[in-house]
Amino acid sequence: MNAVTSLRDQSNEFPFPGSVLELGWWGVLPPISREDKRWWLPLSDTAMVAISTAISSSTAGWGDVNPLAVRRVTSAFLEDPPFLLYALLSWPGDEFVSATELAEWFIGAAPAEFADGEWMLAAPEITNAHQHRWSRLLARSRTTEPNDWIAGAAEWLQVLGPAIDSDWIEQLPAVIWDCVAEPKRKIEGSRLLQQLARARERELVTQSSLSALAEKRKLAAAKQLAYGLSHEINNPLANISARAQQLAREEADPQRQQSLQQIVQQVYRAHEMIAGLMFFANPPEVDRERVDLNALVEAAGEEFAAIAAEFDIRLLAETLPEPAMVSVDRSMILEAIRILLRNSIEAIGSGGTVVLSMERVDDPSRDPQWLIHVADSGPGLSVEASKHAFDPFYSGREAGRGLGLGLCRAYRVAQLHDATIRLSGGLAGCVATIAIPDPSARV
Q1: How far is CA 409 from the centre of its chain?
Q2: What class of enzyme is it (predicted)?
Q3: Which of 254, 263, 323, 370 could bridge across to 244 with cysteines, CB 3.0–4.6 Å?
């Protein structure tokens, strides 16, 4: 039995329930406005279920209305005076309206009526005295007919509003009661929860489908762009590189020779970017073999030790005491580790620390995982940047951290191995983690 029903059934014994929940009032409905004046009607749990049903059932077309929702709303009209009055006072039609027509209109209008929250900011304070007056009116309504509730609308409105012009109430539409109250059910709230859960499920499925479609289109766009760049730009880059190298060999001035070498280096960098985009869009087949990830971590650490020392960066490589055997493409995983190390070193610039480490995670609910961490003391990474770090088309790169196509390449390597890669950052430092599952290690 809901709170309002309980109050009505016991109104003679308990005219002043002791708490807000016993009163069955959950707030107020949007205000009724007339000539710069406002009146507020209470929101009961009966009305709240009906309104929630109306909102969840609402469609773009007024005529295409769920009949179950219509019955729920018309039944609430017959149970709840303030809800009926609110609908009538908001009704934009003529002087006659059927209960069914009023319900259909309300279901169509409900989302717009309740979406704007400005009216809640302007709502007056609701005191116990207001709630007691509403409860007395509600208890008295048990002995009268709905048409009498309409005639006595002023009593409801004046609890939270100025005095009412009697002519206004007399102009309210007459209701043609073409419905009957549904038998009271104790599971209306449960049904509402089910409706909301199903609606949310549909939203999640739609979001998932749109995300998958967006990912597919992103890869297709990357592939088309990569092929175009490869064909249209690689050839001019090769000519620029060859000409710059030839000029550098013939140049006697050391400064001009250095400038020409920089041109060659930038050409190589542009070529690597195109190659990275090509890899992201159309990667080669994965050539799996059993590999000890410890060996890859050691190899990457040794390879970048001299580069890190050149920039006064301390590079630590920490492996596990036991073998970390997993079936992967050795060259791809090693390249992903190199990319993360290069990103960290470039982010620090000079005078910092990079820690390359291994970790094993055993979770009974999924395959065991090997984690490869690359932590650095460089600039932090914002939440927004971490979301788009692996997106080749993201333009919001942060100063001090590359986040370019190299990370997109590492992301693609992780994808090809059913692995994950993530970046987490704070005000200082960043941690990149590759999580590689090992199904063969599951017991």
Answers
A1: 26
A2: transferase
A3: 263
